[in-house]
Design brief:
The protein has helices spanning about 10-15, 20-25, 30-35, 45-60. It is built from four helices and no strands. The chain starts with 7 loop residues before the first helix and ends in a 23-residue tail after the last helix. By secondary structure, it is mainly α. α2 (about 20-25) crosses α4. The protein has one domain (about 10-65).
Amino acid sequence: MSKPLLDFEQVRRARGITIKAIEEQSAVPAVQEYLFEIGCPVDEAIKVRLVHALSVLAGKYYHVTDFQQGVKPSIPERAGR
């Protein structure tokens, strides 16, 4: 049985880490970090740098394979709108 995959954004927020902190630690532009958070395809080297930055800032080791890949489902529109 494999362990459930993590959501990068949720882990980052739960640890109180800002996008700016990830950007500074990883030297990856915030837009690339945002694209990774929402599940858009980003280069593997970018993913590695972002996850490494999160690991350093969180004080806990994470690996790229710990996180969900692919586009997150959108929030359904409210009924009646």
